[in-house]
Amino acid sequence: MLVYVAWRLVLLQAVGAVPQFISSSATPASSVVSSASSDTATSISTVVASASAAASAIPSSEPLPPVQPWCISEIFCVCVLLQDVNLAEVYSDPKMVVDKPMSKSSQQVLAGFSVLQHGSSVASIMEGDIVSFEDDDFTGEGQELVVVALTDFNDSPMFLQNVMDLLIQAWAQIGSGYWADLIWETNTSATCPIYPDDGDCEGTFIR
Ligand SMILES: *[C@@H]1O[C@H](CO)[C@@H](O)[C@H](O)[C@H]1NC(C)=O
To answer: What pTM, to 2 d.p., does this model score?
Structure first.
């Protein structure tokens, strides 16, 4: 019977029904922060901006969508800054822009963007300008969470013995084992206030 269960599991894995691992690094890495727990190591990769044509002007702006009353940040919500950064396509995942907290205050970031808009002799903002702006004024995404090492994790909970079908029991056992990898906690010293709170940075992470 156990051989049969093992065989069925191999089949399920072969068709992708059972995940073999959970990857936390689906995006290209620029820097890797590792925190090791007792027997696992989890890495958080962060992404840096890059331009396909740094010396090219970003495409000209489209009319902005309507402002959403519940989203009032002057940087992470509907605004020219957000649109221009997205038009420069400096990240392969456009959502990355709002995942990155600032490394400065909102006022400093807005002032820096204003210089980009008006301070240069060329009429347009270049892709390379946005790369520097993102890398100088924003920091690594995902640093607000840290791995928790569970000291009392029971990887064979009693209730599994009540599951009579051995295939389902084995599947539940594997699923239960993922809990240890899914537990994270907020690192409060890495979070930024959400606009309009004053702070030395601003982010979108909701505590
Ligand atoms: C929490 O965040 C601070 C500030 O970014 C960092 O220095 C510290 O290493 C982080 N703590 C952990 C446990 O990752």
So the answer is: 0.69
